[in-house]
Amino acid sequence: MRIATWNVNSIRARVGRVTDWLQRADVDVLAMQETKCRDDQFPHEAFEAAGYEVVTHGHSQWNGVAIASRVGLTDVQPDFPGMPGFGKPLPDGTLPLEARALAATVGDGIRVWSLYVPNGRDLADPHYPYKLTWLDRLRLATAERLAANPDEPIALMGDWNVAPLDADVWDMAVFEGSTHVSQPERDAFVAFESAGLRDVVRPLVPTGYTYWDYKQLRFPRNEGMRIDFVLASRAFADLVTGASIERNERKGDAPSDHVPVVVDLDADSPLDDDRPMIF
Fold this sequence. Notes:
Layout (H helix, E strand, L loop, with lengths): L1 E6 L3 H14 L4 E5 L10 H6 L3 E5 L7 E5 L4 E5 L22 E6 L3 E7 L10 H22 L5 E6 L23 H8 L6 E3 L28 E6 H4 L2 E6 L15 E5 L14
Parallel strand pairs: 1-2, 7-8
Antiparallel strand pairs: 1-12, 2-4, 3-4, 5-6, 6-7, 8-10, 9-10, 11-12
Helix pairs in contact: 3-4
């Protein structure tokens, strides 16, 4: 089974690129972030024509997450327990929940989360403590689920908006005093290890960026960041046989500023029964 995550930076602007890549790369499941559309605006027809069913979670032209699968989608869950909100308080005094988290079970019981972690904006901005709280609540919710289901294969996939290592940005001097590399953010990322998760891509792909800004020729100069990750439970990690960062998807016409991150699993899927047997 091949599972991937990709911040597509507007699915309506890039649906052709995404569905074409899904078929070329033979991907079974794709977690998408920054779909930037309401659920009723998502281009379902294009995915269905490519052989995928899709679940979406989007409120407006901002944020938005989705999961596409050709190996089944069950037990769909938007948001996670305890997820904090942000923005103008609602009439009941609570803060609105942004469309940043969506889970589904795919294949033979594999639980996948598509996550778009808050950016943080600036260390002095209210979005920064919101980001730290969001990460902490996600960790707690994940730890609680794994405590109840220690053998469940779970993957938290998406745009984490954190560069955990100095090597994950092209020049630390450029990022001094900014988000994505601050110690509290890095500590929040590392804390997921205590919840029973591990980065399953870095051991196989130790170097490489997943994001390059559109400005100042960042991509041709390879001035990028590694901020898209797959953090997985032990049961999921035990299935991993390969991984890649699809750098070439940053090239061509109207690319996203992120590229797909792919994980291969030694796991059966419903498609296996339809493939020719080789003796």
